[in-house]
Amino acid sequence: MDLAVKACGCRYHESDGKIVLIGVGNEHSSDDGVGHYIAKELKTKNLPGTHFEFVSGEAASLIEAWRGKRNAIVFDAVRSGAPAGKIYRFEAHSQSVPGRLFNPSSSHNLGVSEAVELSRRLNLLPPRIIIYGIEGKNFGQGVGLSPEVKNSARDVVELVMREILGEDQ
Amino acid sequence: MNNRKIKLDYLARVEGEGGLTVRIKGNQVVDAKLNIFEPPRFFEAFLRGRSYLEAPDITARICGICPIAYMMSSVQAMETGFGYKVEGMLRALRRLIYFGEWIESHALHIYMLHAPDFLGYQDIIQLAGDFPEIVERGLKLKKLGNDIMTLLGGREIHPVNIKVGGFYRAPTKNELFSLSERLKWAREAALETVRWVSSLEFPDFEQDYEYVALRHPEEYAVIEGDLVSNKGLSFPISSFDEYIREDHVRHSTSLQASIKGHGAYCVGPMARININFNKLSPLAREAAREAGFGPVCLNPFMSIVARAIELVYACDESLRIISGYQMPEMPAIEVAPRAAICYGCTEAPRGICWHRYRVDEDGTILDARIVPPTSQNQRAIEDDLLHFVKKNISLPEDRLTWMCEQVVRNYDPCISCSCHYLKLKIERE
């Protein structure tokens, strides 16, 4: 697993309320569906205190998805030119998210990094919000992930499960 | 002679890839060009050999902001060409999902793309630092537009529930009623938006525009009508080619449209309100009057007010549609193809989106032509730049460059539609 940023090892506790897990992207654009894939896989694990949202990545809908939540984990595809499957992890509550990685659905629209910065200005950012980005390879029309992307998606599922269950410490 | 060159390579807060060059020789502006270098995307060629049933879903991919416009123009074209008319609740639902797109697109442009220009901010994130309540209002309005699209279209970007003849599934009464309270809030928020944007400072700049919009005898035209200009033209959409020509120009990968014998023309919210002011709802008309807008407005910088007025109308009309809604027995009428030339034209957020298809007796598309709003506004944008720089040539370079960007953004250009980013370059020789 090629982790750009190592997991911090923070635990989630019941006292933090529900964790919203947000899958971002479009399942019908191949690897752009990796965010939804990860969130769906995690949904099958029946993790305690979790709640799921599936969005396109448009900022207004994203902000609404994490509004009022104390914990959020976001999964989205990345298109940076790095090797397919590379995993990025950002603790967005304390660091900015590079806009060049997360492309909005349209150049006219605002995407994940803009939604994070806008929420920070508006005091709408959850106190703890983790953004996972997985480098995609094929963003063409169609359903299904490239093998490298699927492998990394499974790694992220494991990583997040450990993080939520507090087994990463 | 004082020859100068101002270059701005990237114009943000517009859709698509392109550039802009203004050349100034001494104190004379010699040229203003909108350089669109977005690669042409050949959608018309993709459509050849495909079934008429695929036209809405293929053309929706032209734009992530206004897919409904493409879907509606294509379904209208097929239905009209084959001799059908979608009426009653299905027609009302089409207007409703279109208003969802207007709300989403107008809120985006007003709050996130255009307002920062007037208030001196680089972007909405900076704006949010000083005006959090205003930005939150914009986000909530936009989200409501997204949700109308999702409820009626299946998803907010590139909806999948629209078909030739109607919808794959019609919403239940309760599903639509669930939007009512938020729409009532949105109508008030839209009125607040009109008050807010009308208080902005607008440059003193007017042009003798030829505005073109659809006109319908009974309603503020969105999904149907004849084409009308404020300079006396009136023709059915099937006569588009008799009045409008499209030309290749060296500096743009998008065709440029003009009215034969007249020249540049404008489409979009300014054109619609100038032509159809009396068809706005009383509430929207009143909001316009209070804002000091219309019935005639020739200042392109006030397009932000025009969009806000249309936000009021879209919310008001959506509430009217929902209050009278009865779920139709069938979500679509049956449509059978025939050999035909099919014309469709509807009012995208940025202006008329015209389609023409030649279809054989089996419903296979033989050829297609699509004329999106931004390609129609290109010449007007270039004319505005030329005249604006002429009038303001003594402005300091950075201020002039900032204002030129604003001149372009007055039109909310969507270069993705016209062929996809915009860059601005002012050259002074």
Q: Your description of this structure?
A:
The complex is a heterodimer of chains A (169) and B (429). Chain A is 28% helix and 20% strand. With 169 residues, chain A is an alpha/beta fold. Chain A has a single domain, classed as Rossmann fold, CATH 3.40.50. Chain A has a 5-stranded mixed β-sheet, sandwiched between helices. Helix content of chain B is 44%, strand content 18%. Chain B has one domain (43-425): Cytochrome-c3 Hydrogenase, chain B (Orthogonal Bundle), CATH 1.10.645.10. In chain B, the strands form 5 sheets. In chain B, strands 1, 2, 3, 4 and 15 form a 5-stranded mixed β-sheet that branches. A 3-stranded antiparallel β-sheet of chain B has the order 7-8-9, covered by helices on one side. A 3-stranded antiparallel β-sheet of chain B has the order 12-13-14. Residues 419-425 of chain B have low confidence and may be disordered. Classes of the chains: A alpha/beta (169), B alpha+beta (429). The interface between A and B is medium-sized, with 20 and 29 residues.
